[in-house]
Write a structure and sequence with these properties.
Helix content is 19%, strand content 30%.
Length: 196
């Protein structure tokens, strides 16, 4: 879609001109705000691709190992919060269709920009137990401002034994201080060179 391409081009141009003006110019994972593995949709990354899914009366909770995000998904039929409340991971509502958990998510804040999508993204996820050790995760992305038509994908998830460990990430870490300090030093050096 032309609008999505314009947004992507503008973001790349801004990033080239302002790679480290402040922490807000760094990527969401680097700032410990949101990692692509948390989604939604939940896609595997380089490491820490573990999820713990817990069902309680009226809710399903998905704990994401990477950056320890948690999605709390009501199953009681309540409506979405509405477009005046927008969240990083959207507003999810779930229901069962036979043995498949169907999760409908709307009201994204548009800052995560999944594959160019914005706050208009509507996501439908399906979780189906394929066998005792496999969960089939399917999702459909619908965002008319980013894609010409809805599209879908599947990811088989394998059961693993053992605990999920804390991913101790926090904004303002030593790496961020070094990145921003290095950028200031480069700017100072360039300014001194321009004065010659």
């Amino acid at each position: 879609m032309p609008e999505a391409q314009k947004r992507a081009d503008a973001a790349r141009a801004y990033a080239r001109q302002h790679p480290a003006d402040g922490p807000e110019d760094r990527g969401l994972p680097e700032r410990c705000l949101l990692w692509p593995t948390a989604g939604p949709p939940m896609l595997p990354g380089g490491y820490n691709n573990n999820y713990q899914i817990i069902q309680s009366p009226g809710y399903v909770v998905i704990l994401v190992e990477m950056i320890h995000d948690v999605r709390i998904i009501p199953l009681d039929g309540r409506p979405h919060l509405g477009s005046s409340v927008r969240q990083w991971m959207g507003d999810s509502r779930g229901h069962w269709e036979g043995k498949t958990l169907v999760v409908d998510t709307t009201d994204f804040n548009g800052k995560a920009r999944f594959r160019g999508a914005d706050e208009k993204m509507h996501l439908t996820e399906r979780f189906t137990r394929a066998d005792p050790d496999t969960l089939l995760y399917e999702f459909t992305v619908d965002d008319p401002t980013a894609f010409t038509k809805p599209w879908s994908a599947q990811v088989p998830m394998r059961k693993s034994e053992g605990p999920i460990f804390e991913y101790a990430c926090h904004e303002g870490n030593y790496g961020m201080e070094g990145i921003l300090g290095g950028a200031r030093a480069e700017e100072k050096k360039a300014a001194a060179g321009a004065g010659n």
